[in-house]
Known about the structure:
CATH architecture of the largest domain: Sandwich
Shape: globular
Number of strands: 16
GO biological process, one term: cell surface receptor signaling pathway
Organism: Lonchura striata
Keywords: Immunity, Signal
Number of domains: 2
Low-confidence stretches: 1-8
Protein name: Ig-like domain-containing protein
Strand content: 35-45%
CATH superfamily of the largest domain: Immunoglobulins
Number of helices: 0
InterPro entries: Ig-like_dom, Ig-like_dom_sf, Ig-like_fold, Ig_sub, Ig_sub2, Ig_V-set, TCR_beta_variable
Radius of gyration: 18 Å
Largest sheet: 4 strands, antiparallel
Amino acid sequence: MLAPVVLALEQSPDMVIKEGQSVNLECSKKKSSSTAMYWFILPSEKNSSLTQLASAIERGNPAVEKGFESHFKSSKIKGDSITLSIDHAFLNDSGTYYCAESDHSGWALQQSPDTIVRVGDTVTLECSGLGNVVKTMYWYKLPTEKDASMQLIVYSVEGGKADIEKEFKNHFQSNGTRNNHLSVKIQHALLNDTGTYFCAESNPQ
Length: 205
């Protein structure tokens, strides 16, 4: 369950490397109670989606996702940090890398597929969690601008009302989390609503 503390991490600064070089990306968590850490890549190609690269559970062995094992390696969680190593980087390794932390390992979410809307259109983004545990659900936006950071749009506890962030209240609406489902409606979409949208969930302690 990808928790909102994804925004409270310290990771390696932007860097440019040549094809064939090796590099280590560092990530340190701020929440010492977290039990799992993750690495993701958002490839630089147009219309690409966020892809998980690796994960590690506290006191467990790291796992690199299928398709990335050839030249990606992840360390175990050491103290409050995790390292992603890229051995002999390829051109298609270009992208934005994100680290995240969670109070629980793994997640299972289903969300709306990629959608293209015109300025002025209205669109509803759907997200469903799998499981029966009462939880909090979130929607985030990653703007298309270079060096943009993930923005929290809305979050809601199961059965509670939606708490929409101030900058999105003008034309974003949500009825809150119901039966592990959280939708957000964008009314009369603006050009600056363009971006990649992610849903996430976290379980109670």
